[in-house]
User: Which sequence fits this backbone?
């Protein structure tokens, strides 16, 4: 048996005292369904769907119609259980806690058959005192309730007035009342994603034992004092003091590369205690600041903090500290009504260019460190500098933010509320307050996060009356909105984090929304704040249809993923644009027709007599259409940065929807088969369906290998628009793709994300251009 045991020993020279002991309960657990008819092993961290798949009891959840076939999994009540023996003498410890970093979502927890607590929030961290129930040999159970059934019960119990929406649109094939459960909102379905309301222990679970006192949490914020022109560090440490007497000692904080060390005397009274320290960095020391990608280095400094406490107890922590300032500038603009909306990093105005981030998979145990790094490296390689972590997903894992710090990717961080109104009964608010306080404490030390946003589109949903609320009832919902996002979330942000701005929603009118009582009559105004803009009917090649707004935080167009991506989750009968599978996979009302309409404005639609060829060509054409539309709109926003036309403009951000897919289906994603759109710019003087003289291009490739990189030497017999290189299911990234090939030869590099061979690439390689359709 492999023991996941960490023993943190004291650093004192005499009479070493154990500071704390941490015993991980990761690994194999037992899982059973509600009536006990199905029992299987399952991994923690993990979820029921993954356990069933790993045991061969279900197919790939993304295969064909399995999002409907496997609804029973989410509607059952599952139990996770484990028996284990402590590898140490438990009686020697004054306090023993069970720590659950993430439980998905509704559960009752029993330890040695004693109920020790419950969970109701996927985004919270839970700690339960098990000192009086722990033994040498122990059992633990987490008895889950279906989040779908729980949400329905909570909605039914809310009898005073409805809290819409009840259910998602029918085309999404999802579950109802997701706004009544603090869980990943898109797990009940979205217009780009399936319904897989998971159950399980999705983050770490462990036992912590300690004497005297224990450091529960440690966080910090760099603050720049403009008047003194110097940096300070605000440090907060949370302790649980189990000694019956006060615990005194010293704290030593050191940042060697900044020639900074400071000592503090502290005394901790019994109970839960917070220590706040203020570290000054001498103005005579040059501090290198953290900059976004493309604007400078991402310099960080190693910091250690040592608590030398009574009883020979030493506790040491280390962290990387980054120094940067961020300001949200809302001020009058000459020649335009309203206010600006842009960010200054270290006093320098920055144009935010990037995308919106959704969860990388419906099943979080499949989101590996390698996948996160590859996706985020792709963001940097595409010359982006910003991602908006959208409010219908999850607060991402620590490594996501660490990578963003390292790579210089700015993060617009939503709180996890999206496209709905929410209840404000006391139990719901208590859960939200615990969630928000924990996430602020967990994330605020990351320089990459430049803003907190209270929700996604909920101000607009309320004020534009998405849910057809009677006008006389609107004050009730406005009061609830202000209660949740202003009197609770905003209050916690202002108290817990002084290092970055907060807005209540996206889109919002910013300062104007505040002036109008926290909800604006038109939250999508071009003269204030940020906008979300979608238009699938107007010609996307006509830049005049786009809003000349201050900041575009959402915009985009749908396309289908490549055939090689779809092939893995479909069968031959599915391979047509009008098949049952194609209609099922489309979760956006009218989406398939909208794509064909938009493509038909400038391209000839496929007319092959071969149905499979027509399907492949149609997929390819939707991707070409999407690339052109997003390119045109993005360039419009970038041009609008430095101009005011008809009193509108000064656009300082463009974040398209969305970076990557959650499953193999039509979506707004630019990364599907893990490939980037071409960075090369070009302009067509007419629609390509009207172009004269295009000949079918015969494109050949010679593939060679140079170390870990593969070289594709391409040769074409004619001008080839929108050349698309495809290597099937081999994950990786081309140095360019979707390009216009006007020269006879061109060299493209391929960077594989997994070990592969030249022969595998040669067998999988396929090239398409627009001339194959024409």
Assistant:
């Amino acid at each position: 048996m492999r023991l996941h045991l960490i023993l943190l020993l004291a650093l004192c020279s005499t009479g070493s005292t154990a500071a704390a002991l941490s015993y991980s309960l990761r690994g194999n657990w037992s899982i059973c369904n509600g009536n006990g008819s199905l029992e299987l092993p399952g991994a923690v961290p993990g979820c029921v769907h993954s356990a069933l798949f790993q045991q061969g009891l279900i197919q790939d959840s993304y295969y064909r119609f399995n999002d409907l076939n496997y609804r029973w999994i989410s509607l059952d009540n599952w139990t996770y259980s484990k028996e284990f023996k402590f590898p140490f003498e438990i009686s020697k410890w004054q306090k023993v806690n069970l720590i659950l970093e993430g439980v998905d979502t509704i559960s009752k927890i029993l330890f040695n058959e004693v109920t020790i607590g419950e969970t109701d929030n996927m985004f919270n961290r839970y700690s339960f005192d098990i000192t009086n129930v722990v033994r040498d040999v122990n059992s633990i159970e987490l008895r889950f309730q279906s989040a779908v059934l729980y949400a329905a019960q909570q909605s039914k119990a809310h009898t005073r007035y409805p809290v819409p929406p009840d259910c998602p649109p029918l085309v999404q094939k999802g579950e109802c009342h997701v706004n009544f459960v603090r869980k990943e909102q898109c797990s009940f379905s979205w217009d780009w994603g399936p319904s897989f309301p998971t159950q399980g222990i999705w983050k770490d679970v462990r036992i912590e034992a300690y004497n005297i006192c224990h450091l529960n949490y440690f966080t910090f914020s760099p603050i720049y004092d403009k008047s003194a022109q110097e940096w300070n560090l605000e440090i907060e440490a949370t302790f649980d003091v189990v000694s019956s007497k006060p615990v005194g000692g010293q704290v030593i904080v050191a940042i060697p590369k900044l020639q900074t060390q400071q000592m503090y005397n502290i005394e901790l009274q019994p109970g839960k205690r917070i220590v706040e320290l203020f570290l000054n960095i001498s103005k005579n020391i040059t501090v290198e600041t953290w900059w976004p990608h493309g604007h400078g280095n991402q310099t960080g400094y190693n910091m250690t903090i040592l608590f030398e406490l009574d009883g020979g107890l030493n506790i040491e922590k280390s962290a990387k500290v980054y120094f940067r300032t961020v300001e949200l500038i809302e001020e009058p603009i000459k020649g335009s009504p309203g206010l600006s909306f842009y960010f200054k990093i270290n006093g320098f105005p920055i144009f935010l260019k990037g995308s919106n981030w959704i969860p990388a998979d419906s099943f979080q145990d499949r989101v590996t460190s390698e996948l996160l790094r590859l996706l985020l490296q792709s963001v940097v390689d595409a010359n982006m500098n910003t991602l908006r972590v959208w409010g219908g997903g999850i607060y991402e894992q620590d490594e996501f933010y660490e990578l963003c710090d390292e790579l210089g990717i700015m993060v617009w961080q939503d709180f996890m509320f999206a496209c709905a109104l929410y209840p404000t009964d006391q139990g719901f608010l208590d859960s939200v307050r615990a969630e928000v306080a924990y996430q602020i404490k967990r994330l605020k030390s990351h320089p990459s996060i430049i803003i907190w946003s209270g929700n996604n589109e909920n101000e607009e949903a309320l004020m534009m009356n998405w849910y057809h609320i009677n006008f006389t009832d609107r004050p009730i919902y406005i009061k609830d909105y202000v209660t949740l996002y202003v009197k609770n979330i905003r209050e916690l942000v202002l108290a817990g984090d002084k290092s970055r701005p907060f807005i209540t929603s996206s889109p919002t009118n910013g300062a104007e929304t505040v002036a109008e009582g926290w909800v604006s009559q038109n939250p999508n105004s071009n003269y204030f704040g940020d906008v979300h803009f979608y238009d699938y009917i107007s010609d996307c090649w006509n830049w005049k249809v786009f809003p000349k707004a201050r900041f575009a935080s959402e915009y985009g167009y749908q396309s289908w993923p490549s055939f090689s991506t779809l092939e893995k989750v479909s069968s031959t009968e599915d391979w047509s644009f009008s098949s049952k599978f194609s209609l099922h996979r489309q979760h956006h009302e009218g989406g398939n027709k909208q794509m064909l309409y938009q493509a038909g404005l400038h391209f000839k639609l496929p007319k092959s007599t071969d149905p499979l060829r027509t399907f492949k060509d149609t997929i390819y054409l939707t991707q070409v259409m999407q690339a052109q539309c997003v390119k045109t709109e993005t360039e419009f926003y970038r041009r609008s940065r430095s101009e005011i036309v008809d009193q509108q403009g000064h656009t300082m951000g463009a974040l398209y929807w969305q970076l990557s897919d959650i499953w193999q289906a039509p979506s707004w994603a630019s990364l599907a088969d893990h490939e980037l759109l071409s960075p090369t710019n070009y302009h067509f003087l007419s629609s390509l369906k009207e172009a004269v003289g295009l000949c079918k291009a015969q494109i050949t490739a010679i593939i060679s290998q140079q170390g870990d990189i593969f070289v594709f030497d391409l040769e074409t017999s004619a001008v080839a628009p929108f050349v698309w290189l495809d290597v099937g299911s081999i994950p990786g990234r081309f140095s360019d793709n979707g390009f216009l090939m006007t020269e006879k030869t061109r060299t493209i590099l391929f960077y594989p994300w997994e070990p592969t061979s030249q022969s595998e690439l040669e067998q999988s390689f396929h090239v398409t251009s627009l001339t194959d359709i024409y």
Notes: Residues 456 and 506 are 5 Å apart (CA to CA). Residues 213-310 form a domain with the Immunoglobulin-like fold (CATH 2.60.40.10). Confidence is low (pLDDT under 50) at residues 1-16, 674-678. The chain has four domains: 20-146+197-207, 213-310, 352-676, 691-768.
